[in-house]
């Protein structure tokens, strides 16, 4: 994830280190005081808000009983990955940016830093991918998809995500595709083979899966919309419903016939109510996943396009791509870690309510209030549904 940190001002002689062969040297870009204040303020705010938002997600799910469900394990994993980016990666990038691109933390820690950066960002991206698959299967196969109700299986999915993310960091640490760790430069390996492997596993494959899942959920929601387009308008059998309701107030002439008609109508209403619930769930899933995929693509696609093209265009030269462009695209990708908890809080009423209570330090009886709010929403939905008919 971490790109070159220097702009070519004073080219140095080629270095003789075989494992770190590069044109990079102690080249920097000097910022003025005003630029440092503006840049430092903006990226510090991004970092602090990322820490706050993702911490709220983890605390909410861990402390609120209603949210401690297997289906939320992936949300916690995503928040943990984004929180790790904010705590273990962003502070060092802030310092490096403010000193103009010089790496100040030594050669050994450079490898550790790159490994943390790659693993945490990849875990965040791959968790988003798994969430999209989970949402799709939960909507289209509610009876045959048991993972969301099985905590052990969901935990295994989270473990696999982090294992795959860690695997991308191993090649530079064990001999293949060494990172560039010369004096005051910390640059991820520019080996062409490793670049294709890492960007493919970390971004292009997960993004393709997310787009396919969104397309399928969108198609399911669109089909449901056509099916339920006139659900709120009178239909030919509505008159029978009125007769059935009237029979509960005035005794009908034919009791046996009336009971039979009302039993049939009751069964129909239950099936219709079930279909409407599925339709609403599909619409919400399509809308939420669409925003997640769209935001993710806007944040990370420019950076990964640059990262993929760089070894072919620049080789190991650090000044090939302007420093301001590298840093802008990198921080645009990091911003996705800030946006993720905001999206889930906006579309998840329980998370939104929990956030609000935690921010107001209103911890007492939060589980009871959430249960009461859910009951109230369920009653309102039932009354609204019954009012339609």
From TrEMBL:
<keyword id="KW-0325">Glycoprotein</keyword>
<dbReference type="GO" id="GO:0045202">
    <property type="term" value="C:synapse"/>
</dbReference>
<dbReference type="GO" id="GO:0071880">
    <property type="term" value="P:adenylate cyclase-activating adrenergic receptor signaling pathway"/>
</dbReference>
<dbReference type="GO" id="GO:0004993">
    <property type="term" value="F:G protein-coupled serotonin receptor activity"/>
</dbReference>
<dbReference type="InterPro" id="IPR017452">
    <property type="entry name" value="GPCR_Rhodpsn_7TM"/>
</dbReference>
<dbReference type="GO" id="GO:0042310">
    <property type="term" value="P:vasoconstriction"/>
</dbReference>
<dbReference type="InterPro" id="IPR000276">
    <property type="entry name" value="GPCR_Rhodpsn"/>
</dbReference>
<keyword id="KW-1015">Disulfide bond</keyword>
<comment type="similarity">
    <text>Belongs to the G-protein coupled receptor 1 family.</text>
</comment>
<protein>
    <recommendedName>
        <fullName>5-hydroxytryptamine receptor 7</fullName>
    </recommendedName>
</protein>
<feature type="transmembrane region" description="Helical">
    <location>
        <begin position="153"/>
        <end position="174"/>
    </location>
</feature>
<feature type="transmembrane region" description="Helical">
    <location>
        <begin position="289"/>
        <end position="309"/>
    </location>
</feature>
<keyword id="KW-0297">G-protein coupled receptor</keyword>
<comment type="function">
    <text>G-protein coupled receptor for 5-hydroxytryptamine (serotonin), a biogenic hormone that functions as a neurotransmitter, a hormone and a mitogen. Ligand binding causes a conformation change that triggers signaling via guanine nucleotide-binding proteins (G proteins) and modulates the activity of downstream effectors. HTR7 is coupled to G(s) G alpha proteins and mediates activation of adenylate cyclase activity.</text>
</comment>
<keyword id="KW-1003">Cell membrane</keyword>
<dbReference type="Pfam" id="PF00001">
    <property type="entry name" value="7tm_1"/>
</dbReference>
<dbReference type="GO" id="GO:0006939">
    <property type="term" value="P:smooth muscle contraction"/>
</dbReference>
<feature type="transmembrane region" description="Helical">
    <location>
        <begin position="329"/>
        <end position="347"/>
    </location>
</feature>
<keyword id="KW-0472">Membrane</keyword>
<dbReference type="GO" id="GO:0007268">
    <property type="term" value="P:chemical synaptic transmission"/>
</dbReference>
<feature type="transmembrane region" description="Helical">
    <location>
        <begin position="194"/>
        <end position="214"/>
    </location>
</feature>
<keyword id="KW-0564">Palmitate</keyword>
<feature type="transmembrane region" description="Helical">
    <location>
        <begin position="73"/>
        <end position="94"/>
    </location>
</feature>
<feature type="transmembrane region" description="Helical">
    <location>
        <begin position="114"/>
        <end position="133"/>
    </location>
</feature>
<keyword id="KW-1133">Transmembrane helix</keyword>
<dbReference type="GO" id="GO:0043410">
    <property type="term" value="P:positive regulation of MAPK cascade"/>
</dbReference>
<keyword id="KW-0812">Transmembrane</keyword>
<keyword id="KW-0807">Transducer</keyword>
<feature type="transmembrane region" description="Helical">
    <location>
        <begin position="37"/>
        <end position="61"/>
    </location>
</feature>
<feature type="domain" description="G-protein coupled receptors family 1 profile">
    <location>
        <begin position="53"/>
        <end position="344"/>
    </location>
</feature>
<dbReference type="GO" id="GO:0007623">
    <property type="term" value="P:circadian rhythm"/>
</dbReference>
<keyword id="KW-0449">Lipoprotein</keyword>
<dbReference type="GO" id="GO:0005886">
    <property type="term" value="C:plasma membrane"/>
</dbReference>
<keyword id="KW-0675">Receptor</keyword>
<dbReference type="InterPro" id="IPR001069">
    <property type="entry name" value="5HT_7_rcpt"/>
</dbReference>
<feature type="region of interest" description="Disordered">
    <location>
        <begin position="1"/>
        <end position="20"/>
    </location>
</feature>
């Amino acid at each position: 994830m971490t790109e070159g940190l220097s702009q070519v001002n004073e080219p140095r002689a080629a270095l003789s280190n075989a494992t770190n062969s590069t044109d990079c040297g102690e080249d920097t870009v000097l910022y003025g005081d005003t630029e440092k204040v503006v840049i430092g303020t903006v990226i510090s705010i991004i970092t602090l808000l990322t820490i706050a938002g993702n911490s709220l997600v983890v605390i909410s799910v861990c402390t609120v009983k209603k949210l401690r469900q297997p289906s939320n394990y992936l949300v916690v994993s995503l928040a943990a990955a984004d929180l790790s980016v904010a705590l273990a990666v962003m502070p060092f990038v802030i310092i490096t940016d403010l000193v103009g691109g010089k790496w100040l933390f030594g050669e050994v820690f450079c490898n550790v830093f790159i490994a943390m950066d790659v693993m945490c960002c990849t875990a965040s991206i791959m968790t988003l991918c798994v969430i999209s698959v989970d949402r799709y299967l939960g909507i289209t196969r509610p009876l045959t998809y048991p993972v969301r109700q099985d905590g052990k299986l969901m935990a295994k999915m989270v473990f696999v995500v982090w294992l795959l993310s860690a695997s991308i960091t191993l090649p530079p640490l064990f001999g293949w595709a060494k990172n560039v760790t010369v004096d005051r430069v910390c640059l991820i390996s520019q080996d062409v083979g490793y670049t294709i492997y890492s960007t493919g596993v970390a971004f292009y494959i997960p993004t393709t899966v997310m787009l396919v899942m969104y397309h399928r959920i969108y198609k399911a929601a669109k089909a449901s919309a056509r099916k339920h387009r006139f659900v709120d308008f009178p239909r030919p059998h509505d008159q029978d419903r009125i007769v059935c309701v009237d029979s509960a107030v005035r005794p009908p002439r034919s009791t046996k016939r009336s009971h039979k008609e009302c039993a049939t109508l009751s069964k129909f209403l239950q099936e219709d109510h079930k279909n409407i619930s599925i339709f609403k769930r599909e619409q919400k899933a399509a809308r939420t996943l669409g925003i997640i995929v769209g935001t993710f693509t806007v944040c990370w696609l420019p950076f990964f396009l640059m990262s993929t093209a760089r070894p072919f265009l620049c080789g190991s030269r650090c000044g090939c791509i302007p420093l301001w462009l590298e840093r802008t695209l990198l921080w645009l990708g990091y911003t996705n870690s800030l946006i993720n908890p905001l999206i889930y809080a906006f579309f998840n009423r329980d998370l939104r309510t929990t956030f609000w209570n935690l921010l107001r330090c209103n911890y007492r009886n939060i589980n009871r209030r959430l249960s009461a709010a859910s009951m109230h929403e369920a009653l309102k939905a039932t009354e609204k549904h019954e009012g339609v008919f």
